[in-house]
Amino acid sequence: MGSETTKALRARQREASTRVTRLIAEADAGSPIGSARRTRINSAVREGRRAITALGSAERAVADAEARAGAALIRITEDGLSNNEAFESLGISRAVGRRLINLSVSTRRAPAGLSTSTSTDPTPGANRADGETGAPSDATTKGNL
């Protein structure tokens, strides 16, 4: 009797540890050093979040620039220059040039300012820039009813 089971002993140790941690936190909160530390930590956390956001934006900008460069290389080679001549004209190595072309082909999205999409719409003139699709208008079809 009087001896505690292992489970109860561990529970008491956890409670004591929690109580000590809470007391230390209260003492830190009440002291000017603790509040200054908390302010520095919060400031560092905000700075870190901003840096991570900026890094994500920079990564997207780099990926877009690489896709545009790859698309430009593809256009140059389609106009008749060899891959090596295209790489030399841009002043990049063959390895970098191949990587840019592969990246541009694998993304299969048009970089800003480049439209490579083709229409799958069977309607003639579906890709017309003036907004007319070439399909008969409602007025035409109503007259045929």
Describe, in short, the structure shown:
This protein has 145 residues and is mostly helical. It contains five helices and no strands.
Task: Describe the overall structure.
The protein is an all-alpha fold. It has one domain. It is built from five helices and no strands.
Shape descriptor reads elongated
Termini separation: 100 Å
| Major sheet summary line | none
Tell me, rounded to a whole number, the average pLDDT.
75
Listing every helix as H and every strand as E from the N terminus to the C terminus, the arrangement reads HHHHH
- Beta-strand portion reads under 5%
**Which ranges are low-confidence, i.e. pLDDT below 50, for 5 or more consecutive residues?**
113-142
| Number of self-contained structural domains | 1
- Total strands: the figure is 0
Radius of gyration: 33 Å
Number of continuous helical runs: 5
Helical fraction equals 55-70%
From the structure above, extract its key features.
145 residues; mainly alpha
Give a topology summary.
Elements (H helix, E strand, L loop, with lengths): L5 H25 L1 H47 L4 H8 L3 H14 L30 H6 L2
Helix pairs in contact: 1-2, 2-4, 3-4
